[in-house]
Amino acid sequence: MNEFTVDDLTTILRECAGEDDESALDGDILDVEFGSLGYDSIAMMETAGRIKIDYGVVLADDVVLSAGTPRELVRLVNLTMVESS
Amino acid sequence: MSAVVVTGMGVVAPTGLGARRHWENTLAGRTAIGRITAFDPAGYSSRLAGEIRDFVPGEHLPGRLLPQTDHMTRLSLVAADWALEEAAVDQAALPEFGMGVVTASSAGGFEFGHRELEKLWSRGPEHVSAYQSFAWFYAVNTGQIAIRHGMRGPNGVLVTEQAGGLDAVAQARRQVRGGTPVMVSGAVDGSPCPWGWVAQLSGGGISRSEDPDRAFLPFDVQAAGYVPGDGGALFVLETEQGARARGVRSRYGEIAGYAATFDPPPRSERPSTLRRAIELALEDAGLEPSRIDVVFADGAGVPERDRVEAEALLSVFGPYGVSVTVPKTMTGRLSAGGAALDLATALLTLRHGEIPPTVNVTSPVPDYQLDLVTQPRRRPVSAALVVARGHGGFNAAMVVTR
Fold first, then answer.
1. What is the SS3 assignment for B276?
2. DSSP assignment, residue B333?
3. Domain B4-245, CATH homologous superfamily name and number
4. Any idea where the domains of chain B sit in the sequence?
5. Which of B65, B127, B131 sits opposite A42 (nearest CB)?
6. Are B373 and B367 in contact (CB under 8 A)?
7. What is the DSSP string of B181-229?
8. Which pLDDT does position B121 carry in this prediction?
9. How far is CA B319 from CA A73, B166, B235, B314, in A?
10. What whole-number distance in Å separates Cα of residue B380 and Cα of residue B221?
11. In DSSP terms, which residues pair with B401 in a beta bridge?
12. How far is residue B327's CA from residue B41's CA, in Å, rounded to a whole number?
């Protein structure tokens, strides 16, 4: 399977947890905390659910919640993808 | 005890978004009841509702809130925004726990739940939104309003079906009297989805008429059920002194009296306690019945319940003793939101000195001896009584004064 990118993540965030305005997730958000982007723990659970459905990657709840930034979450998804392939 | 007044109002109703539009349409007697558009009602025994059709959530709310909110929660958030905006509350000037929210709900976020149940059974549990955990919940409107405005004071929800709108405002009045400077209260409700519809139908009493002008006829000889709808109103409550101290010049009125009673179980020999609720509310307001200028009746539209309400009004006010109106003949019954919308309409009546009409009722039951307002009446109104009855035995009565 292809690598999971930050663009894939922002698409999912937009679709399943919403976005305050059209450009909030544009630009360099890799190292911005999810909290600062406006995404709380339930938004992260929702995001993890969509990652599982779309990419078949199962992340444990505590793992998802431990990812503080998009860069970290993208890394965890790719790591899990490699481990399970 | 200090007077608790309404300094802000947010109306979201089938008759209009915003208090002004709602008032104009209500006064003009424009009904908002029509065939259901939220889903195809063809396969159901009842097909009419009072729907809010011109609400575009994205025009009023940030995108982040949309995936996590039910229809009635979105409407609630907008109503709260409008009420707070009108009251011009300066949150920075209030203590950390100085603002609270009490709303009423009858079923929670049914439409949201309907969609998630559909995903559960058609696609599997992993497709169910994590937001279902709270989006369905009775208290969700209170919670979302509190979070949006940082209102960390006393928060709660009341679930007393159609009586809820009044019960919530009464609870908020208690909190204001108890020292919370500002409370947001009222109710916005509605379940415009097949699941919600089936739940409503199972309760009985819903009109099967296909004619929007003949479906909901409270107190009429042809009364044969009611029409459900969605919407309601939220208010900002504070003490009169508090409002004056922060420079508020205009207010809608005072929540002057309130009482709630509970009816005996079905098939009991004992009579309804509705009369007692009305009498206690008047007593709480310190007003004789003759001081009430208009009654906003519950108007069940079901003959047996109409009779109970008419008898209560007759015994308190005497034959044709007070103007009685049922503007919800234009919206249908909005579950918890219904009495809140009536309260809004009552406050607007105090402000404008014009009593809005009951539409479509052409043949009131003569025995009821009600002075039913079927054309708008222009006259000074200084006190109004709102009556609400909830399925399951809930009675509530509230007096508002100018």
1. helix
2. B
3. Thiolase/Chalcone synthase (3.40.47.10)
4. 4-245, 258-401
5. B131
6. no
7. SEEEEEEEE---SHHHHHHHHHTS-B---S-TTTS--TTBTT---B-BB
8. 96
9. 72, 26, 34, 6
10. 31
11. B254, B383
12. 25
B127 lies within 8 A of chain A by CB? yes
Cα nearest neighbour of A25 on chain B? B64
- Give A1-10 pLDDT, tens digit per residue: 578 999 999 9
For residues B275-288, give the mean pLDDT.
98
Q: Is residue B100 within 8 Å of residue B22, measured between CB atoms?
A: no
What CATH number was assigned to the domain covering residues A6-84?
1.10.1200.10
- Compare all CA atoms of chain B with the CA of A54 and give the residue at the minimum distance: B127
Tell me if chain B has a CB within 8 Å of the CB of A18.
yes
Q: Which of A18, A45, A46 shows the shortest C-beta gap to B63?
A: A18
Whether ipTM exceeds 0.90: no
Kind plus residue range of the DSSP H or E element containing B175? helix B164-177
Task: Say how far residue A63 (Cα) sits from the centre of its chain.
Answer: 12
What is the tens place of the pLDDT at every residue in A28-83? 889 999 988 888 899 999 999 999 999 999 998 899 999 999 999 999 999 998 88
Assess whether pLDDT exceeds 90 at residue A16.
Answer: no
pLDDT number for residue A22: 59
Q: Which helix (H) or strand (E) holds B81?
A: helix B71-87
Q: Does domain B258-401 have CATH number 1.10.220.10?
A: no
Spatial CA neighbour of B134 closest among B126, B143, B125, B145: B143
> Is the pLDDT assigned to residue A23 strictly greater than 70?
no
Q: B190: closest CA among B81, B293, B340? A: B340
Structure-token pair, residue B72: 């009635």
pLDDT at A1: 56
Q: What is the pLDDT of residues B160-215, one digit of tens each?
A: 999 999 999 999 999 999 999 999 999 999 999 999 999 999 988 999 999 999 99
